[in-house]
Amino acid sequence: MTHTTPTRIAVIGGTGPQGRGLAYRLARAGHSIVLGSRDAARADDAAAQLRQQLAAAEITGAATVVGAFHHLSAPLLLDPEADLSHEDVLVCGDDHAAKELVMGLAVDVTGGRAVDAGRLRLARQLEPLTAVLISVNKRYKTRSGVAITGLTQAPQERVHA
C-alpha cells in the first residue's frame, strides 16, 4: 500500500544488496525507480533482474539528499515474505519537503514508522549503527533492526522529533 504519491526515485548504490532491496520495496509500492551505480552495465543488469522479479515495475539504470534506510537488513528488503512493519526508519535531512517525501517512502518500504531523526549531518551517525547491527546479526544469527521506544505515534505514521 503506497502512502505517498507514486514518484520517480533514484537509488544511489542501486547495484548492491541494500540498494537493490530498497529499489525492490519501492517499486513494489508503485514507485518508478532509477538505479545508480559507478558502472552503467551493472546498473542495467540489476535493473533487468529487478524487472524480472517485479512484473510491470519501471526500473531503469544535482539532487536533494535525504539519509534513510541505513539500518534495514538488505536480505530482508529483498525477501518478498519479510515483514518489516516492526522496524522504524530513521530519516535525516535539511530540506523539509524532501524529508517528508522520504518519510512517506519509508512507510511504503516497511509498513512501519518513519522517524524524523534531525538534520542531514546526523546521517553519518547512522552508518556506524549499521555496523553494530551487522555484528549483532552475525553473533545471534538473526536479522535485528531498530525500533524507537517512547514515541506516541502508531505504526504507519511519520514521527517528528
UniProtKB/TrEMBL annotation:
<protein>
    <recommendedName>
        <fullName>Pyrroline-5-carboxylate reductase catalytic N-terminal domain-containing protein</fullName>
    </recommendedName>
</protein>
<dbReference type="GO" id="GO:0052851">
    <property type="term" value="F:ferric-chelate reductase (NADPH) activity"/>
</dbReference>
<feature type="domain" description="Pyrroline-5-carboxylate reductase catalytic N-terminal">
    <location>
        <begin position="8"/>
        <end position="90"/>
    </location>
</feature>
<dbReference type="GO" id="GO:0005886">
    <property type="term" value="C:plasma membrane"/>
</dbReference>
<dbReference type="GO" id="GO:0015677">
    <property type="term" value="P:copper ion import"/>
</dbReference>
<dbReference type="InterPro" id="IPR051267">
    <property type="entry name" value="STEAP_metalloreductase"/>
</dbReference>
<dbReference type="Pfam" id="PF03807">
    <property type="entry name" value="F420_oxidored"/>
</dbReference>
<dbReference type="GO" id="GO:0008823">
    <property type="term" value="F:cupric reductase (NADH) activity"/>
</dbReference>
<dbReference type="InterPro" id="IPR036291">
    <property type="entry name" value="NAD(P)-bd_dom_sf"/>
</dbReference>
<keyword id="KW-0560">Oxidoreductase</keyword>
<dbReference type="InterPro" id="IPR028939">
    <property type="entry name" value="P5C_Rdtase_cat_N"/>
</dbReference>
